Here is the input.
Amino acid sequence: MLILLTNDDGIFAPGLAAMERALRGLGEVFVAAPSTEQSGVGHAITFLTPLTAKEVFEGDRRRGWAVDGSPADAVKLGISEFCPRRPDLVVSGINAGLNAGINVLYSGTVAAAVEGAFFGITSVAVSLEWDDHPDYARAAAIGLDVIRGLLARRPAPGSLFNVNIPTSALVGRPELRVVPMSVARYGEAFERRVDPRGRAYYWATNEPPPPPSPLESDVTALAAGAVTLTPLDYDLTHRGGLDDLAAGTWAIG
Here is the structure.
């Protein structure tokens, strides 16, 4: 099995290194990742300027390709130019910080997995709750267990999955919950400050937190200490609205 590994924290991120070590037990791992941190860039791609990339080494061992672009750029180049053949699996992570709820829409980590799914390749995003001293090795082992379980279920080509691991799940035997993504609104507040020259600037606070919900989602399951697995789909069509819009006659022009 050939695995393309990427992330949005940059090719030198410790979470990427831990995931690479774990995935070697599953197959051959090829790394193509942004040269610098690209958190929160979503599905941005580079097309107005040329992309550059260079091979990165650790001693005599080739670490992978550092792409001067977004996570989606790294996956595109990895699949189209750098991998010796088409990968069987794309893994994005381990991200430093959860990518749950509406953060999925902003996440470069998830976007890299989406890009892999665009190519018809089973793709998985893996994220770990932020901690000053994260145990990436344990998180990678958990992520690998989830990926093995997914592959054993033989998902359709292009299937897309999002895995989140809370810090509390790194101890003992964690529970896995298959849950939907939360769409609760949050992160709307800004703190207004003034710089030394008297100019106002604004810092996003990510508050208030999502309101409590009786419905289980990735956000509620993570708060309960469970590892979450969410199948995603990049088709944004609102299917329920198609028939309503198509009904009757449209008069335009």
